[in-house]
Amino acid sequence: MSNREVIVSGVHVELTDALKALVNDKVQKLFAHDGKIIRIDVKLECDSNKSRENEFVAHGEIKIGGQNLNARAASDDIYKSIDMMINKLDRQLVDKVRVESFRRKMESSVEVDIPSTEVV
After folding, report:
1. In the structure, what pLDDT confidence band is assigned to residue 25 with cuts at 50, 70 and 90?
2. What is the crossing angle of helices 17-33 and 78-108, to 10°?
3. Which of 15, 47, 62, 91 could form a disulfide with 10 if both were Cys (CB 3.0 to 4.6 A apart)?
4. How much is the pLDDT for 98?
């Protein structure tokens, strides 16, 4: 994983070693789908409004060739938010890989007729 990077940041959340390790462990399945992933940014946030109890939000962004993939999940449990966000990114990444694979197959199946030239 020399050229792959995982950045975990927190807003109003204490990033413990266990929480960082959990996020790093969860994102490994994303790296398994596509070798072109450059970096994954994960931002964990605790939003405590007076109108509701603590809400934990997990933002994830996959930096990849082409358009980046983004996902956001919120719940009352930080671990649940992380799981939901990783699952969203996983679905997006699987769809992207399938589309790219389909495009490659379509490109390789194109036949081109080249008229032959006769030398007299």
Report:
1. very high
2. 20
3. 15
4. 85
Tokens of 63: 């930096």
CATH homologous superfamily of domain 5-107?
A: Ribosome hibernation promotion factor-like (3.30.160.100)
The answer on pLDDT for 2 being more than 50 is no
The DSSP-derived string for 15-66 is --HHHHHHHHHHHHHHHHH-TTEEEEEEEEEEE--TTSS-EEEEEEEEEESS
Domain residue limits, the chain: 5-107
Contact between 45 and 10 (Cβ < 8 Å): yes
Per-residue exposure over 75-111, b if at least 16 CB sit within 10 Å of its own CB, e if not: beebeebbbbbbebbbebbeebeeeeeeeeeeeeeee
CA dihedral 60, 65, 67, 69 (to 10 degrees): -20
Q: Is the pLDDT of residue 44 over 50?
A: yes
Tell me the whole-structure pTM to 2 decimals: 0.77
Identity of residue 107: E
